[in-house]
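Hello Y.,

Per our agreement to keep a running log of every chain we model this quarter, I'm adding this entry. I've kept the format consistent with earlier entries: sequence first, then predicted structure.
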Amino acid sequence: MRISELSERTGVSPASIKYYTREGLLPAGERTGYNSTAYDESHVARLRLIRALIDTGGLTVAAAGEVIAAIDSPDIDLDHAFGIAQRSVPRDVTPPSSTAIEQVRAVMRERGWATVADNPGIPLAASVLDDLATTRTDLSAVLPRYAEAIDIIAEADLDAVAASGDRDQMTETVVVGIVLGDVLLAGLRRIAQESHTHRRYRGGVVPGQAHEPGQANETRELT
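Predicted structure for the entry above:
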């Protein structure tokens, strides 16, 4: 297919397609003439991946390039791919207090979690605990329950990796799952929070809705 068709199918402009190719995120198409290039389904899939990493995952082009390089590298270990993906997600974190760091490490010890010393999740979680401490110190008490739930999610992540097939698919599942998985979990958490709120405080009744699980109410007014 020509670049115009590739653009139409993916919603990515020809200029962006050429830019991603220059930056090494997208393999070049096959030259079929002096001023023409052919693309195939692999380019469609790669462009959709690029846009998912950037638009949904919030990665910069440079960070997306590092993630894609990990996917394409034939020699990279899965644990190394995990590290690259974890560090690619943009997070502005204020250096946390030693108290918050110790709270996180206490939960790690309780759950039997072993990580490298500079795992980005440690300061990220600790910085949130510092923020909570300025307003609601009681919320930090639920940290062990959160950790228990995260253990289940982490196991599910690894099960998905193992089930994804060959090595290339496993690596892609690792990096894409980390980058986009955070967004997916945030969405599911909001759905579950509202459902449990209605169940706990309204007897399961959703205001203005037909009360069927999964049925959205497009006419409900939010107040």
